[in-house]
Design a protein that fits this description.
By secondary structure, this protein is α/β, with parallel strands linked by helices. It has 18 helices and eleven strands. α9 crosses α15, α11 crosses α15 and α12 crosses α13.
Amino acid sequence: MIIRLLQNKIEQRLFKGKAILIFGPRQSGKSTLVELLLAGKDHMYLNGDDADVREILTNTTAAKLRLVVGNKKILFIDEAQRVPNIGLTLKLFTDQIKDVQIIATGSSAFELSSQVNEPLTGRKYEFMLYPLSFAEMVGQNGLIGEKRLLEHRMIYGCYPEIVTKPGEEAELLKLLANSYLYKDLLMLEQIKKPVILEKLLKALALQVGSEIRYQEIGQIIGSDGKTVDKYIDLLEKTYVVFRLPALNRNVRNEIKKGKKVYFYDNGIRNAIINNFKPIQSRTDVGALWENFIISERMKFLHYNNIDVTSYFWRTTQQQEIDLIEDHGDAMEAYEFKWNKREKVRFSQTFTDNYIDSKTSVISPDNIEELLL
């Protein structure tokens, strides 16, 4: 069993008088994590996908909820975003049924967060569970063993089902991409053109590591810039992609409003373009490495509660740095190179204007410096 980094953190928050909310993509292991947390503990499990569960948890009262849980001290509500007004229901527990610990999971930040933020102000602990991280896999396989699997991870990603079922990766990823990418999104009223969404995902997958312009993508997929921006926002809220903005501190020639888009998981990205060729046969190795490292770094920062603001950097002369992290009092600049022998020279424009910045090159040889 692969130990998740959040398990101990969540255990320490049990019975502190607050609801525990676990967000994250579908199939990232939220239900399995909670089942491990609750192993041996007397608890009740309810699934928001069940119609009778939604009915009894919607527009309810504290007296009815007490009847539902009976003598159980822990209530686990899976897919809680499917329950209308779930925030008010969870508030009843935290305010009036204080001896019961509520744990709720949700795969859509758009739906669940919007329902719980106001009712549960000051009454919740929130956790984000991503697909398996490099650190978690090192815990399972050891550093040497996991570094030997880097090419595999760059192609197939780190979803739990993909990692634990070797030999079935491509087939499972296609199923996962088709189900989880669209299930939450297509239930939202904002998605009126699924064909445009599918074209957008392919366009984003092919432009990983490149600066994107909404208007240009709109022309490619037969839409407009506003729709592209809106759909990318929804893709972020359902944990498919995330955006990285350009650093702009009024240095001459810095681009002003640039964006890059990365996928939370390399395997999903490759499933979208149906390309599972080995590294040696690919022309997009640089993009794969960049997406893998930046998504893994995001997990590392989140799980270790490190507060930084992340950017990429580029000038109109095409000088570029893959990742900049602003710690408030200092900056760190990173270049990501799959080929460790490739020479890297950081732009003098950057080093002259950001003189306190530390610069590093990350390759497979020293990946642990960034992710452990």
